[in-house]
Write a structure and sequence with these properties.
The chain has 23 helices and 22 strands. The N terminus is likely disordered. The longest helix has 24 residues. The N and C termini lie far apart (about 95 Å). A 9-stranded mixed β-sheet has the order 1-6-5-4-7-3-2-8-9. A 5-stranded mixed β-sheet has the order 10-11-14-12-13, sandwiched between helices. The chain has a 5-stranded mixed β-sheet with strand order 15-17-16-19-18. The chain is α+β, with helices and mostly antiparallel strands. The protein binds adenosine-5'-diphosphate (ADP). The site of adenosine-5'-diphosphate has 17 residues, from helix 3.
């Protein structure tokens, strides 16, 4: 490649999604222009961490004695801004690959979301997505990057772009390792060439960056390992600032946990529960983890092996002396030190939540509404904390208005004298579950039923099996033990079909429905509805069946049991028809219609056309 820069200058086009992102950044995210500074500092800090790793592992690098720091230079008169780091730098290939595409999956998701909704989500979400280097185009029209990679033998390069679809790269003569980024600020953002503005922004977003940030000759950040201080040396506002820094959040955390342990394993940790859940709890937390330090030296910012999956919403730092500095990602994964820390953190976090659930219910409920869906999945992990987690579960209940949650312990205090089982019913949402005819008996007898409306519940609840020696039973299933005593000499009861009539009607039901159902039986749970479908003892919970269908899993459709209500007028009418002529077409039609209505309520009716045709025929006869 020729040394002469103009000759070797090459032009490249941005990837399509990047052009889109740029447009968005400049036109929609301008409400937080100071974000550019956080992004540039965070990139510089990453680059410095990478070079420090090379140093620790004794690899050869350019400029081995250079101070690890970030320098910002401002020229207020000319509205100039530049930021330089002595980090790893970039090769020509890095410049093309890393600065020409949107690598961050979160950012892409953010873009898709905006395209789908046609608007930018609330301001405070921007922080979670890391708009990256390109946020710089909020405050300037043209950027120059000069960089040289730390590999001995690497050359210097200049990258230039006005953010309008393309960039150029040329080789330059650069002695120093690392990267400098410079630009002239747009008029409306010229305040970023002023000391006080830059300093206060750094205080706000980047105060805890691990390397000194110098403005001119002055250090602008704290560079303080906050977690190493003792509890009483930690001030509330510092904790909040630190949380905002580690979690990239704009709001204060819901709560925190400060640990300092010495013994079999030595570590300090400062952990936080965020105030809000990300847009998609399962997807957005996937590549997040705690920040891991070894004796104050940063190792990685997404240490996933320090928390079980169901606690991945927790943000913060862990600093341990028990890991070697040059430990690689692969090694941390299998390190017994990490496993020990994980066990301790898990127990401590659960203890903290337990404490909230007793002493700060408001806080606990906020936590649960945000992260409960993920936390619950902990029931299925075998870490010895299962019982504690089950105690912390909360559910909607027929005993409480919509939106209020109860625990299994609450439920038990309200159980009826002779009640031996904990009852639940699952479904898509509260309103739908409330209409389920299987609830009628429980409502009439004032027996509480837990309403499982969270899709995760269907995976969690069956595995609880029993609580406090009381089995958890879905009232959708046929094997619940319903007490008959309540029904004693009810007037309706006296009005019920007698056994012979009932049995005769049941056999017509069976004959008509054939192998559509597993069985037809008399119901104890119905009050106002003529029939209902329940699942056999070994069948899948209907909600689970629905979930599996949604997830495209093969479900072998299980036949259900149709229960009939011998007190209901419609059933009695059918019995009368049956006594007259068991082959009466209206009787047969009505039986099919009742069965399909129950299927409809279950969300399993596959042929609505036939259903409607038959309904029309029945109405025609009724109105004759
Ligand atoms: P992100 O930081 O989320 O990956 P950015 O757009 O901010 O996205 O940066 C893209 C990539 O460019 C970085 O991942 C890094 O590889 C590279 N990069 C950016 N700034 C620097 C820097 N100061 N030094 C070295 N590499 C950098």
């Amino acid at each position: 490649m020729a040394k002469n820069s103009t000759k070797s200058k090459k032009t490249y086009k941005f990837k399509a999604e990047l052009t889109q992102l740029l447009h968005l950044i400049v036109h929609s995210l301008y409400t937080h222009p100071e974000v550019f500074l956080r992004e540039l500092i965070s990139n510089a800090s990453d680059a410095l961490n990478k070079v420090r790793f090379l140093q620790i592992t004794n690899q050869e690098i350019t400029d081995p004695d250079a101070d690890l720091k970030i320098s910002i230079n401002l020229d207020t008169k000319k509205q100039l801004f530049s930021i330089e780091d002595s980090g790893i730098g970039m090769t020509e290939e890095d410049l093309i690959k890393n600065i020409g595409t949107v690598a961050n999956s979160g950012t892409l998701k953010f873009l898709e979301e905006i395209q789908k909704n046609g608007k930018v989500p609330e301001g405070d979400l921007i922080g979670q997505f890391g708009v990256g280097f390109y946020s710089v185009f909020m405050v300037t029209d043209e950027v120059v990057i000069e960089t040289r990679h730390a590999n001995p033998g690497s050359k210097g390069y200049r990258w230039t772009s006005n953010g309008q679809g393309s960039f150029t790269i040329e080789e330059i003569d650069r002695k120093k390792r690392g990267t400098s980024i410079s630009f002239r600020l747009k008029d409306e953002h010229k305040d970023f060439s002023e000391d006080y503005r830059v300093k206060s922004t750094i205080k706000k977003y980047s105060n805890f960056v691990d390397f000194p940030i110098e403005i001119g000759k002055e250090k602008a950040n704290t560079v303080d390992a906050l977690w190493r201080r003792s509890k009483d040396e930690l001030k509330e506002d510092e904790l909040i600032e630190f949380y905002k820094f580690v979690a990239n959040d704009f709001e204060a955390p819901l709560g925190h946990l400060h640990l300092s342990l010495e013994g079999a394993v030595n570590f300090k940790a400062l952990l936080f529960v965020p105030p809000k859940a990300p847009m998609n709890l399962f997807y957005d937390l996937e590549d997040k983890g705690l920040h891991l330090y070894s004796n104050r030296i940063f190792i990685q910012d997404d240490a996933k092996d320090l928390l079980p999956e169901y606690l991945t919403f927790v943000r913060g730092v862990v600093d341990t002396e028990d890991l070697p500095l040059n430990i690689s990602r692969e090694v941390t994964q299998h390190s017994p030190v990490m496993a020990k820390i994980k066990t301790i953190l898990t127990t401590r976090i659960i203890n903290m939540l337990e404490d909230w659930s007793k002493n700060d219910i408001g806080k606990f409920e906020k936590f649960y509404k945000n992260f409960g869906m993920l936390f619950k999945t902990g029931v299925n992990s075998n870490f010895g904390n299962r019982d504690k987690i089950i105690k912390l579960l909360r559910f909607e209940s027929t005993a409480k208005p919509k939106g209020e949650l109860v625990s299994l312990d609450d439920y038990i205090t309200r159980m009826k004298k002779k009640q031996r089982e904990i009852y639940y019913l699952s479904g898509e949402d509260r309103d739908i579950v409330e209409r389920n005819p299987n609830l009628e008996y429980f409502r009439k007898n004032d027996i509480e039923v837990l309403l499982m409306t969270d899709p995760v519940d269907v995976f969690v609840t069956p595995s609880i099996n029993e609580y406090d020696k009381k089995p958890l039973k879905s009232i959708d299933k046929a094997d619940i033990t319903l007490d008959d005593e309540k029904k004693d000499k009810d007037s309706e009861e006296a009005d019920s079909l007698n056994e012979t009539m009932t049995n005769s009607l049941i056999s017509v039901f069976k004959e008509t429905l054939g192998d559509k159902v597993e069985d037809v039986t008399v119901s104890k749970r119905l009050v106002n509805s003529p029939v209902t479908l329940v699942v056999g003892k070994d069948g899948l919970d209907p909600q689970m069946e629905r979930m599996m269908k949604i997830m495209n899993q093969e479900v072998i459709p299980r036949k259900k049991i149709l229960e009939i209500n011998p007190v209901h007028h419609l059933i009695k009418n059918l019995s009368r028809l049956n006594i007259g002529d068991s082959k009466d077409p209206l009787l047969r039609k009505s039986i099919l219609q009742l069965y399909e209505s129950a299927m409809l309520i279950d969300g399993n009716l596959t042929n609505p056309t036939e259903f409607v045709q038959r309904l029309n025929e029945i109405m025609e006869e009724a109105t004759k």
